[in-house]
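Hey, can you fold this?
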Amino acid sequence: MATPATPVESQYVDFGRAFQFFFEDPEWQKKTLMGSLFVLLMLTIVGAPFVVGYGMEVMRRTARGEAYPLPEWTDYGKYFTDGLQVIGLYIVYYVAALLIPASLGCLSALVGGAAGRSGGGIAGVGMMFAYLLMFVFLLPLAVYFPAAAVRMTVLERFGAGLEFRENIELIKRRPGNYFIAVAIYLVTQFIAGFSIYLCCLPYFPVAFWSICVGAWAFGEVVRRDPVLGGQTGYAQVFA
């Protein structure tokens, strides 16, 4: 059930509130228990689409301004199909980003093999350059991909995630908010990863929490965006 919308109080995403909203939901314990189960199932890959799809719904509900954006664990089919779309979108971009470096690496190996001993140096230099290109392509992808996933989620069209210019425009319209959301995502992922080494912080619920917080952060970006926010019905444009 949808909850009442909350007003947009500030131009910027509230970094502190990102770590509070989750526990304001009256049923956060029950939802966390189910989420932890699906995070556990991610070890067999099966759980990944469900968890990712749940995060997408958190993002949509946040973008609409709902006071309690954590949905019930009821619409499993939608969570699964939504999650598959995000995973598929990432695979498309990841393969595209690695196409040139992988081609260069294969070419270097072929040249080195054809040249015999004298080609070893050529192959080595070519492989090092291929790894450098891989880093050059994957780093911008890490910054860009959330924008593609956000637009695909909010507009509920797989093709929206492939609209490169529109995705870049989302980042450019409110870069401060976008990078605050990226920072929130990175902090929560670090906490989740670090929790593996702390007995008092079981990894599975913390990992589920981190996914929800990251989704909330990008939902807040949408809510403050003059274009996407208007399409969710809760845009507030600041002077």
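Oh, and this one too while you're at it.
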Amino acid sequence: MTDDRTTTFETHRRHLAGIAYRMLGEIAAAEDVVQEAWLRWRRAEGEDIREPRAWLSAVTVRLALDALRSARARRESYVGPWLPEPLLPDDVRALAADAPAARAELASDLSLALLHVLERLSPEERAAFILHDAFDCDYRDIAATLEKSETACRKLVSRARERVRLDRPRHTASKDEHRELIARFSQATLASDTKSLMALFADDVVFYSDGGGRVRAALNPVRGADRVARLIVGLMRKLGGGVAPDVHTIELNGQFSLVLRQRDQVYSTVTADVANGRLTAIYVIRNPEKLGRVLSAISAPSSPGSSQSA
């Protein structure tokens, strides 16, 4: 493998990782896809590849499609709701690093809300949507990548956009408003104050909890302010074991979030969507397999973007 070809691949690594994570919602799986793309790039030395970025993108998408189909089969037997692995600030910056200026807002949107909605698309819809709306690929390149006609790819993108528009939770708050509401939510949760929690929730708030069958979590989404408030208070009483947890604040997937830790173990991350001054969706990740990186981040001596709150 020549130095020039190695340099070419490294130039596009972040772009490929961005595609793979958006397709799969798992960092390790995305890294595996990028590594396999590297191996195929090595084996292709000597071939006349005129557009390396397009070639590598196509290979990455096809590998991610195969991985996603396999993951879908596993997730069908997953215990409870499946949520994407949370991203730390450095991850978000890396995966959004080469977003086209015209698409920067969407391309850098790696929120749990959007990724959760993308899970409901077919693999081909997800790939077409990500390539077109996040990475500004034209329909000719998408068609070549997915081995479909341009007309078929336009339909895939159109259907995906409509599904995202209908299913994506509302989010209209500024960063400061979002931060303030999450802080109030933290205080009400630690105080087991059902009334204050209900005042923070939209009437149709939805609570998702991903325990993966490894730890206690709600097996189905819970809807409605009263039900969600009572659930949270009940969970805190059971999870805390009578001892209040340490609550850290950190940015996950580009949003102000909470990390609950006890006895040097992270047992939950909490992220929420906000609209019209109320929490509209709450995402709680409890599966320990998804929390190792978060624990390392908040345990670091000078962890950027995180702090401890009372």
